[in-house]
Amino acid sequence: MIRCLIVDDEQHALDILLHYIGQTPLLQLVASTTNPLEALQIVATQKVDLIFLDIQMPELSGIDFVRSINGKSKVILTTAYSEFALEGYDLDVVDYLLKPIRLPRFLAAVQKAATALNNAAAEPVKEQPVDDYIFVKTESKGKLLKINLADIDYIEGMKNYIAIYAGGKKILVYSAMKDIEERLPARQFIRVHKSFIIAIDRITGIEGNRVLLKGITAEIVAGENYKPELMKIVKGKMI
């Protein structure tokens, strides 16, 4: 299955693509949105193989969107203006669909995407550089904030939000703990409680169930279900 995302600020165009995807067994819809900033957050936090992306959008153009995701997902551009095609192909998109999009043309583009994804999967696996930052959706509507992973001390779950403590600041983010945990590299972060994820290199000691972090006075405890994984790391460094 190809996990796909639709990004188009025109609801009518979005509905057509939703209908086509529903008729295509090869495709699995991850999400659809009229907001490109929301789409960036989805790409950052979920696995998206293919994006159907409108070019002309008010907050962020499709061209700038493609540049910002840096090849993380394959892209099929959609637009009513053929003059954008050349710039789109320069960005190595899979295909370019001119509105109004017809089903046969849509299916042909999907097949091209499937071939491109299969070819990429067949290539020898190369070691990828570790991501050193994430983008998060803040309390301000439509605002994304870049956070360097090296600045994060710990993360605390707070009902529908999480609080990221980084660089001496508390940043409230609309996200679930599970989602942020999946985005963080396991070699740098560990979940020690249903409400806490900590940066491993900040650990200075363990007292019973308390986890001590460098420069942090907050009470952080290791939950019964999480402490064994934490102790594996600690024992691996014991002398």
Automatic annotation (TrEMBL):
Residues that bear 4-aspartylphosphate: D54
One matching Pfam family: Response_reg
Keyword Transmembrane tagged: no
Protein name in UniProt: DNA-binding response regulator
Species name: Paraflavitalea soli
Response regulatory domain location: 3-114
Alphabetical keyword list: DNA-binding, Phosphoprotein
Domain HTH LytTR-type span(s) in chain numbering: 139-207
GO molecular function, one term: DNA binding
SUPFAM superfamilies, A to Z: CheY-like
Superkingdom assignment: Bacteria
PANTHER family for the chain: STAGE 0 SPORULATION PROTEIN A HOMOLOG, TRANSCRIPTIONAL REGULATOR-RELATED
